[in-house]
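Human: Can I borrow your eye for a moment on a structure tokenisation matter? Separate attempts, laid side by side, tell us more than any discussion would. Could you pick a protein and write out its sequence and tokenised fold? No explanation is needed for now; the record alone will do.

Assistant:
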Amino acid sequence: MNIIAADKRPSFIEHSYFLITLSKFTLIAYDLDHMLPDLFSHLSATACRTIDMQKGDMLFRQSQKTSGLYRVVSGCATLQRTGLGGDTLTLHRAVSGGLFAWASVFSATYHCDAICAKAGSVTKIAKADVVATIQSNPAFSEGFTRLLAVQVQQYRAHIELFAIPSAKERLLAAVQAGHFDATVTELATRTNLSHEACYRALRGLYNDGRMVRVGRGKYKLP
């Protein structure tokens, strides 16, 4: 499993990035904050408003009518979807500077839940203003289309990660990609594994010498 950085890759805590599969078990990391300009400077000041959030706050729910997209100012928000069996899957973790719910601009309802994982604030960008600017500003329209293309590639990378059959190899790929910055429980949801399978895989990686235990439930790469 190889992780290749596109340009200089900053800390996952400070910037949002995504992974693209180039070939089997080879991923490339892109930093969204440096790839794309701040498109939303094209919008009017009234299009954006700041919302303070506390841990556990719900920004929107799956199937709720869409009203805008979001950018994290501080703190952290996770996008989660509940399957038919009741299992929760973390689709995305947005940190400072990260955008989420872009596709809601062209959708009648949100396709997942957005939950505050760490207290902070977000900027909500009104859907109506984004749609109007897409129609009137070619530069904004092109840039926003690029953002959507990036998100499609991001989701494809998630699918490729889930397709790795070995729980240990899937976890190792996720850790190398920077997904283990919270709890083992959240790592399990991000990798679509049960909590038990996640703990077993971490212990296996530790026993193999491919992970180092630094505390209870805390591991890192050697």
In short: The mean pLDDT is 77. Residues 138-162 form the longest helix (25 residues). The domain at 166-222 is CATH 1.10.10.10 (Arc Repressor Mutant, subunit A).
